[in-house]
């Protein structure tokens, strides 16, 4: 099995990092203009939709039709790379603004959760890329909806002041289980794809 070109993965990471700027700018404007007054809509729904949509859009525009996106497993690699690029840059901003303690905590939760959301997104991107015509749009929609739902749940848990820590632990365990399951399924799809292409 050929490894994915490092240059393309690095580009995916960089694209993810660069999209942090428009996302944070939009979030800043919305907050300062008080365009969304309800805390749940602002901190949970709007934030989740904005971040996952931009990650999804980056993959769709710049990577989905790329010649090196040539097997189902690639979706996971690119999804994780874009998400890690975004999470890394976001964490740098928090480090500069709030110090090392906040950055360390964010490295444990938001950075890992973004990567896992990216795995789920990438899994469905890979399914869409190599699915039969009648399934492509369905999987493409799932590549946005599935990580978005997970992100909304994650952000919702963080709003439970005082006992969010008791909820986030089982959710993160579930997220890791789900992501690893998708990785195994993607690997199975890859083997099947290579077999159909007479490469193994």
TrEMBL record:
It is found in: Cell membrane. This is Protease PrsW. It holds the Pfam family PrsW-protease. GO terms for biological process: proteolysis. Belongs to the protease PrsW family. The keyword Transmembrane helix applies. PANTHER family: PROTEASE PRSW (PTHR36844:SF1). The keyword Membrane applies. The chain crosses the membrane at residues 12-30, 42-64, 76-97, 103-126, 138-157, 163-180. It comes from Ureibacillus yapensis. GO terms for cellular component: plasma membrane. It comes from the Bacteria. It is a multi-pass membrane protein. One of its GO terms (molecular function) is peptidase activity. Keywords: Cell membrane, Hydrolase, Membrane, Protease, Transmembrane, Transmembrane helix.
């Amino acid at each position: 099995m050929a490894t994915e070109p490092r240059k393309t993965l690095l580009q995916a990471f960089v694209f993810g990092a660069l999209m942090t700027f428009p996302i944070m700018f939009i979030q800043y404007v919305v907050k300062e203009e008080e365009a969304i007054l309800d805390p749940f809509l602002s901190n949970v729904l709007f934030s989740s939709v904005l971040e996952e949509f931009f990650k999804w859009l980056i993959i769709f525009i710049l990577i989905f039709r790329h010649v090196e996106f040539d097997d189902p497993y690639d979706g996971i690699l690119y999804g994780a790379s874009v998400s890690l690029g975004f999470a890394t840059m976001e964490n740098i901003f928090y480090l500069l603004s709030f110090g090392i303690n906040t950055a360390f905590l964010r490295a444990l939760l938001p950075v890992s959760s973004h990567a896992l959301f990216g795995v789920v997104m990438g899994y469905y991107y890979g399914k869409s890329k190599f699915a039969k015509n009648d399934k492509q749009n369905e999987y493409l929609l799932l590549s946005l909806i599935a990580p978005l739902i997970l992100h909304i749940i994650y952000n919702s848990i963080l709003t439970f002041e005082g006992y969010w820590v008791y909820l986030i632990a089982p959710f993160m365990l579930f997220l890791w289980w789900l992501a690893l399951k998708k990785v195994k399924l993607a690997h199975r799809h890859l083997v099947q794809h290579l077999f159909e292409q007479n490469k193994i």
